[in-house]
Amino acid sequence: MYHKINFFKFKKLIPIALIFLVSNHANAEGFTTNHPAFSQVNETISGVVLDQEGSAIEGAQISVIETGATAISDASGNFSISASIGQTLSVSYNGYEVQKLKITSSSVSVKLQSAKAATSIEEVTLVGYGSQKKSDLTGAVSQLKAENFKEGMNISVDNLMQGKIAGVRIVQSSGEPGAGVNVSIRGIGSIRSGSTPLFVVDGVPLSNDAVSATSPNVGLGNAQAKNPLNFLNTSDIESITVLKDASAAAIYGARGSNGVVLVTTKRGRKGEPMFTYDTYLGFSSVIKKLDLLTADEYRVAGINKLYDHGGNTDWQDEIYRNAVSSNHSVSFSKATDTGNYFASLSHMDQDGIVLNSGFKRTTARLNAEESFFDNKRLKVRVNLTASDIKETGIPNGANAGSDGQVIIHALMANPTRSVYDENGNYTNFNMNAHYNPLYLLSVYNDKTNTFRVLGSTEATLRILPGLNYKFNLGIDKAMSERNTTMFPNLTDRSKTGLYVQANLDSYNVLLEHYLTYDFSLNKHNFSLLGGFSYQKFKSSGTYFGLENIAAQGAGISPDINPGYSGKPIVPGAGYAQENELQSYFGRVNYNFDKKYLLTASLRADGSTRFGNNNKYGYFPSVAVGWTISNENFLKDSQIVNELKLRGSWGQTGNQEVPNKITQDSYSLSQDAGYYLYENLNLVNGVKILRTLNPDLKWEVVEQTNIGADFSLWKNKLYGSLEYYNKTTKDPILNIPSRVLSPTSTVWKNVDAQIVNKGFEFSLGSEIIKNENFTWNFDVNGATVNNVIKNLPVSAIYSGEVSGPGLSGVTANIYKNGYEAGSFYMLNYLGVDANGKYMYEDVDGDGIIGPKDRKIFEGAIPNFTFGINSYMKYKKFDFAFSLIGQTGGYLLNNTALDLNINNLASDRNVLKNFSDSGANFTNQPQLSSLYLEKSDFIRLNNVRLGYTFDINQLKFLKSINLYVSAQNVLTITSYTGYDPLVDTNKQVGGNQSLGIDYTTYPSAKTFILGATVKF
C-alpha cells in the first residue's frame, strides 16, 4: 500500500533525529573529538591482512563500516581502500574471527585469529544434492580446490586429480591431445560395464558415452573417440569432490558403483570486481625414445645385405616434433548483496608431439546467481558453458592389427632407409603392410569438430525457515562431425582413396525436484532431503563415404565438397537410440551435540535399459560417526584438535550396458531361409539375433568403509585413514547360452563376484607457517587387492594382441581366484645355445602350444601414491608433485611387434632383443618375454612462481609469473614409452587391462605462464 507522507509533519522529526545522531556519535566506543568521523576527507588507506602466524591472507574482505566501501586482499595480503582517519574497518575471512579496528593512519596492519569453531573439519564440502560441513561427514569424501590445480598444462578435469586423492587412479589411453582418460576409484569393479565414475558438473550428471564421433576405418584401424570431459576449461573449475564409498555415492544409485566426481565451477566473490587474465606458452617433446638399432648397429647385426639401403635415419625423430602450445583465458567475477556473477572466455591451441596432430578449444562460460523477494526468499542460479573443439588426428587405430599405424611403422622402419628418394619424393618401401611413416601421414587427413553446450538452471525457494524447495533443469547438447580421408596412395590400404564423414548428435536433459529441511531440537540436529529426478539420453549418428576419390591436391578436397569426385559407398548407415532414468531419492543426516552422527539414504532408480521384471533397483546406505574431539575429555587437548571415527555400508549400481539388450532381436536372413514354392527361389527366413531376458537387472556394488579423520598439534599433522571392502554382485555378462537356445550367447546376471578391498591414507602437515615462509606437505596412498569369485564359466578372455601371425590371440583372462584381467600366456625361459626361445612345457607333452599357457599377475597395481608439496617464501612460490605405483604389470605389445624376427624381414628391432643372442628365425609368440613391471615414480609437476604487487597502478592488483614442467623425470624399469598407459583392446565388450600397443606417447612439457589480476 502507498502511504503519503506529510512533509510538514516530517519536519518536526528532524531536530529529534539530529540530537539522536550527535548523542550516539559522542558516546561511540573508541571515538574522540580529535577525529570526528564525518568531518574527514577520504584518502587511500593501504594495509596488509595476515593470519596469527604472520602469513598473508588472500581474499579477505575489508569494508568501511560507515560508508560500505569494500576491498579484497591480494595474494600478498595487501589491500587499498578509500576511507577517512577515524572510521572503522571490518576485516573478515572464512575460518577466522571478524576483526574490527579504527583507522588511525593511512597504513594499517590486520592480524586475524582462527575462529575456534572454524577449523578444517568445519569446512563445507559438496555431497550429492547439497553440501555438508566436513565435521558432519560420515562417508569417504575427498575435495580438491582451485589452489590445487596450479601445476601443469591440463586439457581435461580428470587430469587435475592425478596424484591428489588416495584411491583415484588416472591412466591415459593415449598421449594424443584431448585423448580419453581411464579413471578408476578403488579398483576395477566390472568385467564389461567399465569402471568410469559418474561425473556431475554443476549438478548435471553427464553420460559416459562418447560425444565426439569415432574415426571410421579407412584401412588403418578405428581411432577412439576423444575424452568427453575435454570441453571444460580447467581454469573455470572451483572444486572437485570425489565420493568414494557407498554411503557418499548411494544417493546417485544406479550410476554410483564406480564412485562419483562432483565438479563445481567458479562463482563471483564479494568485494571489488575481479578481472583475471591467465596465459601460458608450453613446449613439449616426447617423454622418451625407444632404444632401437641405429643404422650402424643395424648393419653389423648380421642382416641380409639387401636390407642395407645406404641411409641413416632416426625415424622417431622424423615423426616426433617439438610441439608448441598456448592458452589464453580471461574471466570476470563479482558479487553483490543479492547475487554473484562469473564470466570467462578461453582459447587453447595445443600441437601434438606427432606430426599433423593437434587440439584447439574455445570455451565461453557464464555463471550467475540472483536473489529475489523478501530476505532473499528465492534464489535463481544459471550455469552455461559452450565449447568448440577442433581436433586433428593421425592414423593410429588400436584395432589395426600388426600394421596400419603410423607409430609402429616408424618404429619398425629400417634405419638404413632414407625419408626421401633421389627425386625428393617420399621413399617407397615397396613392402606389403609396411610403409614410409612420413608418406602415410601425408596421405591421411582426420579432422573432428565438436560443439557442446552444457547449461543448468537451479531455483531455490525458502518455504519456511529451514525448509527449501529446489528445482534443477539441466541440458547437455553436443554435435560432432568427423571427416576422415585416405587419399589415393601407393600402399595396399585403400589404394584408390576413401573418404568417410561420421556425425554424432547427443542430447541429455535433466529434471529434478527436491525438498530440504534443516532444523534443530536442543542438541538434536536434522537435515532431511527428498526428491524426484528424471533424465533422458538421446544419441544419433550417421555416416556416408566415397571411394575412388580424386588425388590429393587435385580439385576440391572431399571434406569440403564430398560431391566433387568419387563413388558413393552403398549403403550409408545411421542409428538412433535413447534411454531414460526415473528416480526417487531421500536422505537423513542427524547429529547429536556435534558428537554422534548418522546418515541414511535410499534411492530407487527405474531404467529403460533393464527388463520388465526389474525396471527398478533400490540402493540403500547407512553410516555412523563419532566426533571424539568434541567429547569433554578431549575438548581442551593441546595435541588432538580434531578426531572423528566413522563407518558406512551401502549399495550402488552400474547401468553402463548397451541399450535394448533385454529385448529380443530378429532379422530376415538367407541363412535362415527356405524354399516355399516349386520355382526353387529362396525365401529369406527370420533369424533370432538376441534372446529375450526380461529379468536382467543392475550390477550391484556393496561396499563397507571404516575411516578416521584427524588433526594433531594445530595442523602439524592431519589426514584420514580408510579401510574399504567393495564387492560387485550380479555382474552382467554375455555368456554362452544353454543347449537348444535360439542364440549362442545370452545377456544375463551371473552369481559371480568381483572383490576389491584395501587401505587408503592421506597425511599432511603445515610444516612451517610464519610471516615469511609457508610449507605445506602431503602424501596419499592406496592399496587394492582384486579377485574374482564364483564365475559360472571356466574363463572369459579379452585383450586382443596385435602382431604378425597372432590374429585371435588374447592376453587377459577373467578366472575364479585370480585378479580381474590377469595375463595368460606362455612362460618365457630364455635363449638356448642355438638362439632359440625356450618356453615352459606346462603339460609335459614335449610340444609348446596353447595348453602350455600360464596365468600371470595382472595390470592392477596393488599400491598407488602421490606426494605434493607447496612452499611460499615472501613473494616466491614453489610446488611439486610426485606420483607412482607398484605391483602391476604391462603387456608391451609394441615390443612384441618389434621382435627379433624383424631382422629377417627388412624391419628394425629393439636393441635389447638384438643383443640377447636370439636367432632371427624365432617367430613372435605371446609370452612373458613381453610382460614387464609397470612400477614407476614420476616427478609429475614442478612449478616456481613470483608475485609482483603493483601498488603504483590502481587498476592492476598483482602479476604472478611462473615456470612449470610436467613429466620431467620418470624412474621405471619399463622399456616402453610410458608405464602409465592402457590401450583399449577389448574383445566382445569385455574390457582389456594393461596392454600397451603403439600408443601415442606422452610428452614432457615446459611452460612459461602468467596470471594477471585487475
From TrEMBL:
Q: How does it sit in the membrane?
A: Multi-pass membrane protein
Signal peptide location in the record? Answer: 1-28
**Residues of the TonB-dependent receptor plug domain:** 134-260
Give the matching PROSITE patterns: TONB_DEPENDENT_REC_3
**TonB-dependent receptor-like beta-barrel domain spans which residues?**
421-968
Spell out the family assignment given in the record's similarity comment.
Answer: Belongs to the TonB-dependent receptor family.
Protein name (record): TonB-dependent receptor
